[in-house]
Structure formats: C-alpha cells, structure tokens
Amino acid sequence: MKPLLPAATAWTRSKPPLLRFLDNCLSEFSAETSGHVADYIPELSKADPAYFGISLATLDGHVYEVGDSRVPFTIQSMSKPFVFALALDLLGASKVESAIGVEPSGDPFNSIRLNSENHPFNPMVNAGAIACTGLIYDSKGAEAFEQIRLALSRFAGRDLAVDEAVYSSESQTGDRNRAIGYLLKTNAVISDNVAAVLDVYFRQCAVLVTARDIAVMAATLANRGINPVTGEQVLSAYAISRTLSVMTSSGMYDYAGEWIYRIGIPAKSGVGGGILAALPARLGLGSYSPKLDKHGNSVRGIKVCEALSSHYDLHMLNRSDDVRNAVIADYDIGKSPSRRVRRPQEREILAAHEQEVRIIELVGTLSLSAVDYVSRRLAGRPRPQFVIFDLHRVTSTTRAGARLVAEAFEELAALNVTVVLSGVRRASKEWNSLREWTAELKNVRDFYLLDTAIEWAEDQIVYRYGGSIDFHETTELAEQPLLAGLSQEELTDLTSLCTIRTYQSGAKILATGDPADALYFLRSGAVHVALPDGVRLATLTAGMAFGEMALLEPTRSADVFADMAATAFVVPLKDFERFRKQHPRASECIMRNLAQLLADRLIVANAKVDILTSM
C-alpha cells in the first residue's frame, strides 16, 4: 500500500476535473485500434497510427493538453472553415454567398458534384473549399496563400508553417481536386488559372498544426472570433457565426446529421487525423489520431467528442440557462441607500420618495431573453424617476441584448425615466456594445461606481423635492449628530478645545495605520472615507464627524480624503478624554450617539446583504 501524501503535496499535485477527464479519455480510447490511416495522399500514410493527443481551450485562455498534443500534423480539411470566414471578411458576404451554397450535400467530402445552380453545396466539401480559395486568389493573386497562412496563424496564436513533403505529395496525386477545379471553372465559379488556385489550396491543406493549435483555433471560433490566448479579434463576429452555422450542418460531411444529432457541437475533421469542435461561448476542443473511419473522420477523435458531449451534457441545443438568474439584486434607496451620510432634511426627503430610485444589479450575459426579463420585471412595479442598472458583474453583451436594451431605454425616456448605468468602463467592449445602440439617447447617465450612481440619483431627488445640498455651508458643533444632547455649556467647553484646520481638495487627511489621536468634526466641504484598496465606505458633508473610531481603537482603519476644499474642528483625543471626565453626562451622550451611528451603519450593511441573498 502506497503511503499517503501530505495534504499540501497532494493539493499541489491535484489536477482540475477537466484535465482528469481528458486523461481518462486518453487512457480509455488509446485501446481503440479500428480505422485506417489515409493513404490516398501517400505522405499521409507515413503517420504513426499510435499517435493520440487531446487539447481543450477555455474562453479565458487556459489550455489543457494530454498525450501527443504537440505532435505536428497537416491541417487538411480543417482549414476550410477558417478560409471561408476569411473570405467573408476579405471579400464581403454577398460575393462569397453568391458563389458558394450553404446546404448539406449528403455526399463524401471529395464528391465531384455541384448543386442545381451549378455552385458548390457548401464551403466544407472540397468543391466549396476550392471555390473559396479561388475567390481569395482572384482578389489577392500571388499573395493569396500568405493571406491564408497568416489568418490560420492568428487563429492558432502562433506562426504556422507548411509541410513541404505533404504539399508535394498532395499536389502530385490531386487529380480528383483538379477535376473539381475545372468543373468549377466550366461553371464560372473559378474565373481563371485553375492550376494556381489548386496550388494555393494544396498548400493551405498542408499547413502544420498540433492538437493544441486546433483547440485554440476552435476556441477562437467559440469566442466570436477573439483568440482567447492572444486576445486578438481575428475575424468579425459575423463571419464567425456564419462559419459555425455551416460547420453545424456540413462540417462532418456525410456524417454531419448523425454528428449534430448525437454530439451537438459544431465541428470539422481532416483526413490528417485531426478534429476540432467549437462550442459557442464555452470551449474549443482539438484532437489528433491518424486512424480514420469510413467517413474520413478520426475514430478516436469522434469518441473524445462523444464522451465530452455526453459526460458534461454539452449538446448546444440542450441549454438550460434561466434568465431569472440575470438579476442578482433589485431594490430601492429605502432598502440600500448610498454611503453618503445625509443631513436630517435630506434624509426626510429621501425617506418620503425612496421608491423613486430603483437599483437593479445584473450578472452574466445580457442576452435578448435576459434583457426582456429585466424590462418586464421593471414594469411590474410603480414607475420610478431613476433606474440604475449595475453591470459590474455582467460578463458580456450580445448584439441582440444591446439592441433590446436601447429599445427599453427609449421607452423609459418617453416616460421621463432617467437611466443610470454603473459598473462598466467606457473603454470596455460592453460599453461599446451598449453605446452602439444608445449613443443618441438623452436620458442615459453613467458612473463607474454603483455608490456614486446612487448618490447622484439621491441628490436629484433632494433637489426635485425642495431640498438643497450646499457644500460651502458652514456648520457648528451643535449640529453634529455625535454631539446631540449636549448642553450649551458643554458645547462651549468642547469648542474651546478645538482648532480649525483647512484641507485642499484631494488632500489625504487620515491614513490607515496612523495613530488614532484626534476627532474631526467637518465644518464645511465634503470628504470621503475609503479602505486602502480604494473602496469608498462613506461620503461626509458639513455637520458630520470622522475619525470618531478613535474612541474605540488605537490606530486608523481607513483613509480619509477631501473631495473639495474643507474645514474641520479637530479635538486631540487626550483633550477629549479629559473633557469626558469633567462632563460625565456629556460623555454618556456621546457614547450613546456613537453606538446609534454604528448601529445605523450596521443596519444598512445588513440590508445590502439581505438584498443580495434574497434573490
């Protein structure tokens, strides 16, 4: 019996579940020996039939690899979807779609047959792929192959080369493809120079890749054209979505119907032994094993795809996303106001109109169905004056979702409702997706921090209902909530201990870790309290105290910054303690007030927790 590993060692040696799954696939399917290595291209017959590599790439750029995942082999027909996507972007959809169909053929990949319009059935069979290469050649001439090689390299995230031996072998034995080429020329799909077009096609099929490469390439397809490893937008989302559509219907040739029925992941195979599978918005899979079945697909590769799909229930038509999960919190300012400490008059106005500001915190993907659910949920309660949508947990926005957002915002504008967005940076993809449709709307404001957005909306409510917020107003100690209940004599004695200090906008008044040796009573201006990582805890205006935790702890636990020019009454802690001893009644009042202030803060914090956990 093996001795047990120490817990720390076992932890560092543990494997993620997906990697263990791939290991199990490698172990189990290595025993599968059926099929044969392609030999109609002589050079391909030299592949070692024992090779077996699997790789899986996630959309956050992590790549799992097992077995012979770094063994190079030629891409062959797996180049077809990428070249089709390239043609759509280079030449325009109308030109490509007028020359090549998108219907399944039901025939083997190298069938010498065209559709009823004398065009290739789709770009995944040889006739369609050669036509696609021909269109690029007509546009780019001698630069056509380099354009294709560079595009394939960008999909893979590294520079790809050509296997010259396979290229030569393919060229020498490619008479069937030549027959297809001349059939295309006869029907004006290829305009001229069949030999040059086929030379480009043979070279593109001879590009060397690995299982890891094709997993990353597949993940790029699954990620709307963005390479998850390099972050590059390789081709447009339009070209990618149309390519995935054709892969779904025709990527596995005359096995395509069975494939999508049983496995349900867009895929493409190549006679070199590779299979790539791209599950949109999820992952990319690449496998390499040279032995093929009667359809020309890798036997082991198909088994890996079958196992992945069935084990994790990944059939793309078996999705169970619940749009109700898009809303993580929905509340008004009565349940969770901003961190701004308000004066009595402001608090009264906000309490009377708390339902006029509604906050909806969203999570996940803003899809059409998610936005529709949010809009119906919003309409299910009385109309507010302000709606704040917090997007900091939103991971992506679909074009359909963004367009429906704009239409919902237009309706809100017609009802005189102001929309406030928070949690999205203006340089982000999500911002660009939203602004594409909402840029012309006049009722949309944005703040990066949710608390800032809530504070701004609260200010508007105060203004609209007769209140005022005068940051330049000067207050006295008698207006401090911490000192409520003190007699005039006690206030006079305390005032004699104070000095008035002035702070410029942006000044750091208190720093975390400093000795807590004074109390501060804000006389004018505004300051904010923040944790060392920048998280804002509270905004204070004239008439509020800060640094009061010096009464309970020896060092500062937060930073305080001046938001504008400010003045404060400052009382050294030692003088304040002497004052408390001389005035025991006042001391009792102050500690009671402090307890109430802390309780109020705890109530607000607990309310926020309740909101987030009650959905």
UniProtKB/TrEMBL annotation:
Family per record: Belongs to the glutaminase family.
Reaction catalyzed: L-glutamine + H2O = L-glutamate + NH4(+)
Signal sequence range: none
SUPFAM superfamilies: beta-lactamase/transpeptidase-like, cAMP-binding domain-like, SpoIIaa-like
Residues involved in substrate binding: S77, N126, E170, N177, Y201, Y253, V271
Keywords attached to this entry: Acetylation, Hydrolase
Coiled coil residues, start to end: none
Descriptive protein name: Glutaminase
HAMAP family the record matches: Glutaminase
Keyword Transcription regulation in annotation: no
Residues covered by the STAS domain: 347-425
BP term (GO), one: L-glutamine catabolic process
Quaternary state and interactors: Homotetramer.
Enzyme Commission number, as recorded: 3.5.1.2
Native species: Bradyrhizobium forestalis
